């Protein structure tokens, strides 16, 4: 469980980032390449990207193992969310930060010996740091740059929604809806997390960083002395990485009908109520309810009652119909 402790000053110092952070997306997308979760959303992207990665991607796999701790310095704080600014901040990482993070990496992954360049990095060798910057640059160019407009579009949509929520109901509502696990009881925000972790803001405020490639629980730095950042996942379209009017989705529309296919995709994006479903699919609520009933009868979605609402989720059959082949690509180089 992650617990973030606020003071009254911290609520006035919350900042909602308006754009994806390229270096956070580099880090988190590298996990998506090596973990099977989220295949319905990332499967096509994995298959397209994994064969094209340069050997330098192994640098990222050393600094960010597929599970557990990844070095904090890969995602610099206090810089504008641009690739150039992030790379420059990474290039200027203090030697103390490098040494401490790599020592933490070794302690938490004792079975993964560090290569020679990583040992040089602990001493602040500028050539080793250049190796890391080059690996991040090459990875971004291959794995993210071709898809950056789609990533930005999805994050923009989340930012617009949260900005409206902030204007109408305040930060409390924004914090409580960051993730399904979020519980806000002033002065503590609780969220799902792989381990018990407490962050005391102590007047420093908090940056809320939306992320396209964050999957499952939100994430943050291990070092609580760093400027506080909470990275949280945004909703995604199933076909975000596909060209417009992809043949597979045309086939689904031909099979189910355009409206029913749109309703199924809207449910598959994330669990939703009938009202939310109508908004996502841009159909009247009566149409959303009717189409949900038809899809439920076909075992393509599942509906369950929660208090005074009905929540719809896509079944494995519904996801498979939308996504087609679910086979995973070759894993990220180790």
TrEMBL record:
<dbReference type="InterPro" id="IPR036390">
    <property type="entry name" value="WH_DNA-bd_sf"/>
</dbReference>
<keyword id="KW-0238">DNA-binding</keyword>
<dbReference type="InterPro" id="IPR051011">
    <property type="entry name" value="Metal_resp_trans_reg"/>
</dbReference>
<dbReference type="InterPro" id="IPR001845">
    <property type="entry name" value="HTH_ArsR_DNA-bd_dom"/>
</dbReference>
<keyword id="KW-0804">Transcription</keyword>
<keyword id="KW-0805">Transcription regulation</keyword>
<dbReference type="InterPro" id="IPR036388">
    <property type="entry name" value="WH-like_DNA-bd_sf"/>
</dbReference>
<feature type="domain" description="HTH arsR-type">
    <location>
        <begin position="250"/>
        <end position="322"/>
    </location>
</feature>
<dbReference type="Pfam" id="PF12840">
    <property type="entry name" value="HTH_20"/>
</dbReference>
<protein>
    <submittedName>
        <fullName>Winged helix-turn-helix domain-containing protein</fullName>
    </submittedName>
</protein>
<dbReference type="InterPro" id="IPR011991">
    <property type="entry name" value="ArsR-like_HTH"/>
</dbReference>
